[in-house]
Amino acid sequence: YSNKKYQEAIDCYQQVITLEPLNTLALYNQGIVLSDMDRFEEAVKCYDEVLKRKPDEAGVLMSKALALSKLNKHEDAAGCYYEVCRMCPENMDAVFERGVELAEVGKYKEAIECYEIVLKNNTPANKCAVPISEVWRYHAVSLVNLGRHDDAAKSYTNVLSCSPKDEKALLGRGAALMWLQRYEEAITSYT
Q1: What is the pLDDT of residues 100-129, one digit of tens each?
Q2: Rg for the chain, CA atoms, rounded
């Protein structure tokens, strides 16, 4: 696997599974390899088999959610992330990713709630792998989608406090300010 010989890795894992049908580690690893090969439907089947035997495996749920997202099954992915959040409320990555998936299906209010949990609870002990500026950006985009341009402009300002030259945030802030007819501020954001 580490040499990117994915098919050989799958064959090895399949041999282990044939000899030890209850070996969830081999089944999980096979799912990881299948995901790396963009064979997401097959990967989801592996993860489902593991979860039948070990339903509280947060890592398996995270992997399944990612594969479901790649299949554009965002609602299902959000459900997996919800289960991880239920089991491990301190997992800010799962909270953030759940927000992303909810936004993908137009559930912006719920997505914003997820981003705000991350923004409130992102501490060294509960660190989100995604930079905080990215969380603010996703927050801002969901606010724009709800027509909350003033709040979105504030969120974009928070992105810029972390990353002053962030072009997406500068453009987003400018657009939000234009919606609010605050044209001079918008021009400053664009330049």
Answers
A1: 999 999 999 999 999 999 999 988 777 888
A2: 20
Nearest one of 124, 107, 119 to 161, comparing CA atoms: 119
Other Cβ atoms within 10 Å of 34 Cβ, number = 23
71 vs 148: CA distance, rounded Å = 30
Q: What is the predicted pLDDT for the residue at 11?
A: 87
Q: How far apart are CA 64 and CA 44, in angstroms?
A: 6
Give the dihedral sign, CA 62/67/143/153: positive
101, 141, 161, 172 from 54: Cα distances, Å: 24, 36, 43, 43
Rounded CA separation 37/186 (Å): 44
Positions of E strands within the chain: none
Question: CB-hemisphere CA count at 13 Å for 70?
Answer: 17
CA distances from 179 to 134, 185, 189 (A): 22, 11, 13
Is the full-model pTM beyond 0.85?
yes
Yes or no: say if 91 and 58 are a contact pair by the CB < 8 Å rule. yes
Buried b (16+ CB within 10 A) or exposed e, 73-108: bbebbbbbbbbbbeebeebbbbbbbbbbbbbbeebb
CA distances from 109 to 71, 89, 141, 145, 162 (A): 23, 19, 11, 9, 24
